[in-house]
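Worked example 2:
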Amino acid sequence: MAIYFFSDVHLGAADKHSEDTKLAMLSRLIERIEYDGEKVYILGDLFDFWFEYRHAVPKEHLKIVFKLASLVERGIPVHYITGNHDFWLGGFLSREAGITIHRDSLAITEQQKRLFLIHGDGLSPSDWKYRILRRILRNRFNIWLYQRIPPDWAIPLAKYVSSTSRHHTMERDKAFLEDYEVYAARKISEGYDAVLIGHTHHPEFHELDGGVYINTGDFIRHFSYVRLNDGLLTLEFLEDEE
């Protein structure tokens, strides 16, 4: 039985053709998980935007939510570590789909491997402006204020802002790639066997002194994911399996 890790699908971010491709590729991965999966960890940004009201959620993503819920019903736990596009997750996914939500990061032991999982936004020491913005966006009072805007206005507005932010940060974060490896090396020095990070959309597998740094990549261009089987971590690509 294998454990799967993936991130950065950004559902809802592109045109219909691109979204259909994403859904098809993600469905293929879910089918593989159904075959030999023991557990799933999503390292953030499954959605390009997600915001919950008391009686409303973005309806366009429910097809994937139902697929993930079916994994849980099969006895395959799904864990979700929030990213910078979906840290406004409320209780819907955990209540209705049985998905376990984790904020920011997660330290786990799987198949006798100590793993540290994190989405990765704001990791670079020079990214201090974003860390300030993140505090503002995550402020409970500001979230409450945004919930006062009717969904038909609030969701399209947030999608527009999210899209603008994504294109800006993707280019900026390329300059931080070395910082992610330094961060991973520091966590490995604390005793972890591997550090898995998303966010950059740049799949990487680096053996460091005492452990491994893996970036899960994305489901926009690379369709990459990580698999842990018999204690061995591998970075894999769905297109390679066609």
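The first helix runs from residue 16 to 36. The radius of gyration is 17 Å.
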